UniProtKB/TrEMBL annotation:
Alphabetized InterPro entries for the sequence: UspA (IPR006016)
Domain UspA residues, every copy: 210-271
Signal peptide: none
One Pfam family in the UniProt entry: Usp
Family according to the record: Belongs to the universal stress protein A family.
Name of the protein in its database record: Universal stress protein
PANTHER family named in the record: STRESS RESPONSE PROTEIN NHAX, UNIVERSAL STRESS PROTEIN HP_0031
Amino acid sequence: MTRPTAAAPSYASVLAHFDLSPYAAPRGRLAASLADMFGARLTGVAAEQALLLYDDGLGAEAERRRVERDLELARQTFLDVAGSRNDLEWRSGFLAPDRHVVEQARAADIVVVGRRASYDQIDPMLGVSPGYVVMECGRPVLVAPPEVDDLSIRAVVVAWKDTREARRAVYDALPLLVRAGEVVVVAATPSFRDEGAEDVAAWLGRHGANSRPLVRAGELSSVAEELLDVADDLRAGLIVSGAYGHSRTREWMFGGVTKDLLETAPVPLLLSH
């Protein structure tokens, strides 16, 4: 009896956040390239919360019109990026941008947001915190560095630690990993073997991925730097990682791999919590 061939994992809906920063257009083009890769719907989202004004109502109306203009500018960026694509949708709202993106993630398989490193230009009105979105949206989040406008999966680095978050990230990234030219599962450990990384590489191989484990052994000053070094050596276009294995408050106060990657990674990050 012939076994049925399993359909390749896929994403059917890509949700991309837009704001008025100079990075919104390249981020949108990256999201569009991801949607094109899977023949997925591309949904653009933006939101802004009107400032509270206590007067006779005229100021409040002017503030509402200002927010409407901002949202229209964000929509125009989305339309410029989308071009002649047909499977499109735009969703905007008068509320906190973080909350809006998290709410709209219910209609998406993967969410694309911008990075917010300390030296990046940010939009204080329409911008979102990638850390908050990762923690709250229940979907894999693709975090785009500034000016990166295409998703390359010629080589992909998977940051492996035997945690729930890392297992979730590998599973969430499976549609990309099975299409990647090479997947390297990197474990930072004092020993020279990591059975978890070997198991994950083998599991990915059973799904058709070209995968192998790699151990960075010994005492490491920075796991994030090791991951970035491997990504640079492979010329990888994507790093997949679990996010906030400790509490998010602890990571932001005392540092952590997630925080360091969000601050310094020059390539997109696919993060899951």
